[in-house]
Amino acid sequence: VCTFNTVIKMYGRAGKHKEAMQVLHILRSAGFEPDVVTYTSLMQMFSNGENFKAAIGQFSEMQRVGCKPNVKTYSLAVNIYARAGLPSEAGRILRQMQEAGFVPNAVTWTSLVKAYSKQGMVEDACSCFAEMQRCGCTPDVQTYSLAVDIYRRAGRPSDAEQTLRRMQEAGFTPDAVTWSFLVMAYSKQGMAEKAGSCFEEMQKSGCKPEGPLLNAVMTAYVQAALPTHAATLFRRMQCKGVVPNRACFNTLIYAFSKNGQFEDAKALRLQMIEAGFKPN
RNA sequence: CUAAGGACCCAUCG
């Protein structure tokens, strides 16, 4: 079964749903029964393909045939409902999991926090984050990052920052993703100076500024009508060896165009191509 | 090392 599961996983990663399902049939005709890993792999495959109905279909099917989901399976089911924008269903799965005698872990809770925050349900997301801790589950970097994201979505940058500070007090080091949520929280409110100081603090703390984060800071400057700051930062970071990604180029080309700097925009487009990115 | 959670762009859909 392990062998078949591996093959299913590989087809799943390649997005080859039909082939994966064919392997499932071969598995059965070879006299084996799919196990919890088989079903979880299939759920993951459909979830990655954004076919949430099929993903949950596998979850139901396994239970129908008496294959018991485990913590990973339940966590994935919560995440599927989170991504599908169905937070109450996600919460239902977590309760169902507890009733079945399983203890939700950081992965499970993080998915549920995301389910609520994605739908803009700030209060529910926050109480979920609190309940997780009441249940004795310690949030990790990813959970804290999503907690910061709750306030970013809600347009509350100071609460976002407070969450990041609490995370540090709890002994965790914010990573590039955590910082990017905070930067975007400030960016959304036009608070470009705040975004810039986050960027500096982040670098001092030893976190490497990767493309997405650089883009978040540049976007903050552009939003605040400071395209020149964005351009300066872009060049300075390039000299420092930070590799800009496609998003950085797009942001800066947009900034130049909006500012009437068409020659700069055109030059950057060429530079973008040289860097191996195709303009769309 | 058979399966689960977080950011930007791209893609997709509206």
How would you characterize the overall build of this protein?
The model has no long low-confidence stretch (mean pLDDT 94). The chain is 74% helix and 0% strand. The relative contact order is 0.05. The protein has 280 residues and is mainly α. Helix 3 (36-48) packs parallel to helix 5 (71-83), helix 9 runs antiparallel to helix 10 and helix 14 (227-239) runs antiparallel to helix 15 (246-258). It binds one RNA strand of 14 nucleotides through helix 1, helix 3, helix 5, helix 7 and helix 9.
Extended strand count:
0
Apparent shape: globular
Helix content range: over 70%
Protein structure class: mainly alpha
Structural Rg: 22 Å
What average pLDDT do the residues reach? 94
Main sheet properties:
none
**Fraction of residues in β-strands:** under 5%
Q: Provide the succession of SSEs.
A: HHHHHHHHHHHHHHHH
DSSP helical segment count: 16
Low-confidence stretches: none
N-to-C CA distance: 44 Å
